[in-house]
Amino acid sequence: MTKEEALKKIVELVKTHHIDIREVLLELKADQPQNTHADSSWMNRLYSYLGGILIFAGICALIIMKWQDFNLYERVTLTLGFGFSSFVLAFLCLKYPNYQKAAAPLFLIALFLEPTGLIILLQEYHLMLPIGWVLIIVMIYLTHQRIAIEADSPIILAISTLIFGWILFGYTTANSRIVLNLGFGFLIFLLGLYYREKQYQITTPLFLVAAVLEASGLLTLLSQYTSILMPTWGVLIVSFILFLQHVIAFILTRQTVLAFITIIFLYSFFLAAFELLGVPERLKWFVLSSSLLAVSSFINHSKFKSIAGLLFFISSLALLLDTFAIVRNEPYELLYLVLACGLIFLAIIESSRVLLVNASLGTLCFILYYSSQHFPHTVGWPITLIIIGLLLIGVSGVVIKLNKKYM
């Protein structure tokens, strides 16, 4: 019997005898041999962390005892150098099963020593770092990035990018900041395209980091070397350039994260364009939010539906807030309830929990607002509160039922 035939037979037996999948999983877990090392795994981790703390405490004690005798380079070597070495050594340990337990304490050492060394540099040079130190920090960051990519670890990439980005862009001149932003951004963008072929999970944060860096670099460039009125014209031009870059990359690769970034830059372009055209604020946000809601609905029925939830959240929140600002204290303010209930209906059609939550909260908040405006000082206010409470319970029950039935 082949594997496919065995699977068909299993499915047939499950359907015939009405067996729940959870019962099958429980039986499979019961038949698996118990791992003799499972009970001691927490003890091994405890020893690893305690070992890291003790090693770190010993290094700190030694450094503190001799700190006054060290010059700048020795202090940086003992903190930044030793921390970076520990970081690299930790990843080397992860590649060998016999040494994996040593990775945790080494990561702890790197976590504390590397920022300490960078802070020492900043305190010494006050405002601006010399180009030599900038290059050293860039090399250290690129090593962190390379290791994070090889380990397919977005959290390491995010932490290292935040720390080193703050150091470099906070303590460099405008010219250096432009080069670093654009250079880093485009390099990270290319890395995202390269590692996309290898199915790395880290490609998503790589594209997001690249988008932020490139946008920041272009805005800084325009503000320094052009007479363009900032920030509106700058946002318009930068959004258009980066929209073209990411839409071309999206057409070639069909990456979901590139679709999301493309939409963000497209709407930031229209936001700046409406601002320059003098479109009224409320009309501008109503058009953008309602159109983004339609785009979200379209994406929800495509293979890129993983970003639909976030787009539904942004568009529905903006639409509800803008509509409330339009109808507030107007004779037709009850039309807000029509919109909120319409969004609940749309949430059911789209099977979107995010949209359902936003629309439900918008409905309940408007009921509270309307009651406080029209029944605040009347005898019936306590009764109104009771009614509101019953409405809250009733709407909550309806939302739960809708969630179970249609989501």
Strand content: under 5%
Biggest beta-sheet profile: none
Low-confidence spans: 34-40
State the shape.
globular
Task: Assign the structural class, choosing from mainly alpha, mainly beta, alpha/beta, alpha+beta, or little secondary structure.
Answer: mainly alpha
Mean pLDDT across all amino acids: 73
Keywords: Membrane, Transmembrane, Transmembrane helix
Describe this protein's structure:
The chain is globular. With 407 residues, the protein is mostly helical. The protein has a domain at 46-126. The chain contains 16 helices and no strands.
Topology, please?
Elements (H helix, E strand, L loop, with lengths): L2 H14 L4 H11 L6 H29 L5 H23 L8 H23 L5 H20 L3 H17 L3 H23 L6 H23 L6 H22 L2 H22 L3 H20 L7 H20 L7 H16 L2 H22 L6 H26 L1
Helix pairs in contact: 3-5, 4-5, 4-6, 6-7, 8-9, 9-10, 9-11, 10-11, 11-12, 12-13, 13-14, 13-15, 14-15, 15-16
Task: Put the structure in a nutshell.
By secondary structure, the protein is mainly α. It has a domain at 46-126.
Describe this protein with a few key phrases:
single chain, 407 residues, transmembrane helix, transmembrane, membrane, mainly alpha, 16 helices
